[in-house]
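Study this:
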Amino acid sequence: MKFRTRRIILCSLASLAGAWLFGGVTYAGAGQESTSYGPAPQSTLTETRKDYSDKVAAEYNYRFGKDKPFIPGNAKIEGEGFVQPGAFPNATYCAHCHQEAYHQWRQALHSNSFRTPFYRTSVNILIKTRGIEFSRHCDSCHNPIAVLSGGLTQKSLVDRKFDQDGLTCATCHSIQSLQSTNGNGGFVMGIPSVMVDEKGNRIPGEVPYDEIMKHTDRHSKAVMKDFYRTPEFCSACHKANLPAPLNDYKFLRAFTAYDEWQNSKFSQRNPLTFYQGDFTTCQGCHMTRSPNALPDYGAKNGTFASHRWLAGNTAVPFYYGFDEQLQKTIDFLRSGKYLNVDIFAIKKSGDDKMIAPLGSVPFQLEPNNVIEAFVVIQNKNIGHSLIPEVRDLYEGWVEFEVKDSNGRKLYHSGFIKPDGMLDERAHSFTNRPVDADGEFVDNHRVFAIHSVAYDNTVQAGRSTLVRYQFRLPADVKGPIEITARVNYRHLRQSYLNNVFGKDHPLYPLVELASRTRVLNIGDNQPVQADSHDNPDWMRWNNLGIGFLDQLQYVDAVDAFNEVVKLRPDYADGYTNIALTEIQWEKYDSARLSIQKALALSPTSARTLYYSALLERRAGHSDAELADLLEVVRQYPQSRDARRELGITYYQRDENQHAMEQFEALQAIDPDDVAAHYNLAILYRRAGMKDKAAEQQAMFTTKKFDPGSPTYSLSFLRRHPEISIESIPWHMHTDASDQAKESHLGAQ
């Protein structure tokens, strides 16, 4: 190598502890330290790691098998055995050249992924209940150094001072490959390196800064990979499941932010989205470039890719007093780009006619009218669901308020009570996981989950319809003001109470989006649209999506018909009618709508997909095959098209082609149950018994448990407020008991 080195001298204790000493900076594992400098020969490093690994292995709990030291997580490390924690350079070493990155990282969730009381509360319950070895599931993402160094075992020899830094620069920038997109730490870590030699071989540990500056190209090769810029990189941790070794039950999907992105318009991999958009990665939203305030050699043209990873976590910066991170997070959430709130329509009691769209049509209101309000919440520009990931801990909800001209509250839903708790009957974007006894799984005890009694979210590009009913007082005179807001709090009050007790500050509540309309008593004429309002055709379209998801097929078709009246050139309007009619099992009329759509857009992959389903229904196998082949040609990573094409080939007894499609589907989604089921059959037919058995086993653990609804029903019987929310087309109304709660919330 070109740069100067000094021979490294490793004492036996430092060897076992795993001291990695470069550039005059010492970082040693297990509390040990050495006083030598320079990179050691590869043979010495291998021997040093082996000595450390053997020492750890002698006391390590291999509960899940000698060949599976990091299960129930999926994290892996290159080479054999464990790796010394001192192999990972501390973030302060990187900060010498990357001050902006370090400043942002220190306040970001990644650097606080392990130490926060919010995370520790849950993981400590897991450790106390089941054992520290089970925490490898969570810490594969929250604290991978602890996992890969063998620290998560009884009688651990590892000094856990790295806990305070969570995910460091060296953890993310040492990942060498991805295993798949099934998450739970689905990466393969390399021995950390900040530089490669002339031949491209990674040099473990730290090197002098002046050597890095002389060979910045070799530094970049060591710490950057092209896949770091892909959503698949994020999927390693922003997708999770609960495997059988964790819960002694079966495989359960947990959160699927990556899958949600893949099914969104931003991935351009799914032809079935309601709207189209430009390709955008996770990094495109959460690592946007902005001018750097501090010197950073990673900056380009005066801008730096954000290492704050702004998203929805206001709790961590609030707890630690990171005011800059908190304000930037709030600004991110309040940007107004992500949601559209539309008070779309009202109905008067006794009149089935919908007054819609509000603002575009005239109508009359009188005192004593009982009003139904239709609020449409559109997930417009979020690349995942509203609310994503562990939504049992987060609170996102709709607040709906009606006031008269004097500011008197006539109706209020979604208020915060004096004790900080959310109105139980608020329309919230949350879920309720339950255990085998039908009890709510509080404190994120994921190992106890057996079912989900209620899961309400708005997927990317879709809309939800929320309905409210209230009465106008007999003495109302002036105009009334109706406001609908989407609010968000990280975390829910009951969880914060569990962590801190009830005596704690009120954590930030952020308004994500809102819309207000003023309705006159008497005559109401059309008004000019607000700058944030969607055009009327899109307002009808979003209403139709909301009706469709609530299984209100007549209303959905009526709404989509309004779309094509306003935009007769809009092919997707007819496709939306057909989609609704297919679910409604009105196949003949669906075919007519598909024909109209294809006349406007003959190569539309979305329309061809639904055309194929109708051709299958009619027994036209060749036409079905042709349609799906064209869809897959246009969208080779469409999981829906691959699945249906596999079924088509299967039904045509073209087993090899069917096998290829289900294998392609499994590459897109390794947890697809249909792929497991069909591949088990196809492999068995092909004489591939081992592969068939493997697929059969995965199908068995991942398939739906027919007994799980009983756990959910037990919970819903005891919680009528949640039971009502679980009905898609439920109505929020100003019944007397809720009116009292509203009055209490206003005090």
Q: What stands out?
A: The chain is about 40% helix and 15% strand. Residues 139 and 658 are 38 Å apart (CA to CA). Confidence is low (pLDDT under 50) at residues 1-38, 736-747. The chain has three domains: 49-192+225-255, 326-534+709-745, 550-702.
